[in-house]
UniProtKB/TrEMBL annotation:
Region feature (Disordered): 90-136
Superkingdom as given in the UniProt entry: Bacteria
Protein name: DUF3040 family protein
Basic and acidic residues biased stretches: 125-136
Keywords: Membrane, Transmembrane, Transmembrane helix
Source organism of this protein record: Dietzia psychralcaliphila
Length: 136
């Protein structure tokens, strides 16, 4: 769905403010691009399916040199590699959430700030409450 002219202008203003505020972060975001997480997803799925096929095929076939299902071990290692690739290519939630809950909190606004945080997840709210206990 394309953006309206107003939305496009707002997005351009936000982008220029980001470049003015933190040029190093903005250049790193521009280098990685917005679709960096989508490309390895297909590879992860294919590796996972190949790993499952090797795992099950190794158990089903009678090919067990030394009595050990080597083909199943290879299938497990392929699935493990797919999992590692998926974990490394997934965007980090922690880096985005710590930026919003960083040191910009005003002392003395403890309960008032949590009232407006209804859009946050349960774990984020619990983390905020835990931090506030030690800030007081």
């Amino acid at each position: 769905m394309p953006l309206s002219e107003h939305e496009q202008r707002m997005l351009d203003e936000i982008e220029s403010a980001l470049y003015a505020d933190d040029p190093k972060f903005a250049s790193s975001v521009r280098k990685t691009g917005g679709t960096g997480g989508r490309r390895p997803a297909g590879l992860v799925v294919i590796l996972g399916l190949v790993g499952v096929a090797l795992l099950v095929g190794g158990l089903a076939l009678d090919f067990k040199p030394g009595g050990f299902p080597v083909l199943s071990l290879v299938g497990f290692l392929v699935m493990f590699a797919a999992g590692v690739l998926a974990m490394r290519s997934a965007p980090s939630k922690r880096s985005s959430s710590t930026g919003s809950a960083g040191g910009a909190r005003v002392p003395g606004t403890g309960k008032a700030s949590s009232k407006g945080a209804e859009g946050q997840s349960y774990s984020s709210r619990m983390e905020d409450r835990f931090r506030r206990r030690f800030e007081q």
